[in-house]
Fold this protein.
Amino acid sequence: MNVAQVRRPIVPPTPPRAPEGMSFLRRVAVIRKNMIATWGQRAYEEDVIKGRFFLHNSFILNRPDAIRHILLTNYENYTRTPAGIRMLRPVLGQGLLIAEGQPWRHQRRTLAPAFTPNATANLVPHMTAVLDETIAKLKTKTGEVIDLREIMQRMTLEIAGRTMFSFGMDKHGATLRNFVMEYGQRLGRPYFLDMLLPVSWPSPMDFARARFRKRWTAFVATLIAERRAAGKKEGAPPRDLFDLMDEARDPETGKGFSDEQLVDEVATMILAGHETTATALSWALYLLALDPETQDEVASETRGEHLDSMADIDRQKFTCAVVEETMRLYPPAFLVARAALEKDNAAGVEIEKGDIIMIAPWLLHRHEKLWEQPNAFIPKRFMSATPPDRFAYLPFGAGPRVCIGAPFAQAESVLALARLIGEFRVELVDTGPVIPLGIVTTQPDHSPMFRITPR
């Protein structure tokens, strides 16, 4: 499809692009506030940008063939950077998202059965129950000015709680949200010494992160204890993700997860399944409020159906395209950074041991060589007979380390957006721009206010 033939699309606001020649110290200062704002125009035009990071080279890769090599062909040669480990370890421990080598392979094999399409389908009733409750509450707020981002955070947290534990998050939701906010606002931001020091040398912020981790893991252990106390009928099939994870065994070794490992895996799944999905839905609602015609197309696709199965979700082709286009413009993980363990050649890019490789979905998804009208909101580009290159579109990563929960997140996002837009017309109250910030995830600089009315 030639997207230029579509009616004139909206182009949502973005941060100003960094001036060429930004000093190193200035760049470090900006990184803490908004990584996206450190990239200049060249990063959206060139295939490879080579720079220096302390004693090593750094590369921004925008070439799908080179990215394929890093994430698929020779992925074992690339590990997380010290700063990346520092940002994730306090909240995820040694869970699947951060583990490397043999521990990662064990975790991936063990968890895989819990995230098959059939397993996801069995969790849809938990999603629909929460959506029914959310829509009922929203019907009492029609005509009012509301914060849909906060509502999406509460809704996806409730879905995460029920799909993981089969119980609601009324009791623990506020505490979990406070943990997420505390970490994101201060401890999850990179500081100069976080980037300079090797992981084995604690930075000043690592001490605060260690104190946070002690409180955080105790909280997750409490959730697990409550779920275990609720028990399970002998011989009954698994009723939630916790059952699946607790019973999971590595098909090669027969080994399951220890209690300590289970805490890290549960923390990973709750955070990955809650915050990133809430953020994606918030951006989708914002885009649809900016583009009422596209919003009406989403509403007409549901045809007033009560969607409650994977088959129903799979029929929402246009709504799925809206979700995909939203994650193109606002990828939840805006940057993947890796350090080379050994010398390599990535499709012609010569890489030395210790070099830093940056694959930025934010840049890749808006690159002028890879996308027509890259900054415009055009969902129908994802309904074309010619899909984008697999390594030019990375909302969930790619290769062996692709997000294991991608089918779950996609189903939840499509279901929620179809149901919400099928019930309500969404309008922006705020007239000012909403600027994306690259801090842990691609977040809005403020929560815009909305008004909803029944359809």
Notes: The radius of gyration is 22 Å. The chain has a mean pLDDT of 90. The domain at 3-454 is CATH 1.10.630.10 (Cytochrome p450).
